[in-house]
Amino acid sequence: MTIRDLVRRFSSSPSTLAATSAATLATAVTGSLATDVESRWYRRRELPPWQPPRLAFPIVWTTLYADIAVTSAASLTRLRQTDPRAARRFGVALGVNLAANAGWTVLFFRARRPSVATVGALALAASSADLARRASAADRAHGWALAPYAVWCTFATALSADIWRRNGDG
Question: Which keywords has UniProt assigned to this entry (predicted)?
Answer without folding.
Answer: Membrane, Transmembrane, Transmembrane helix
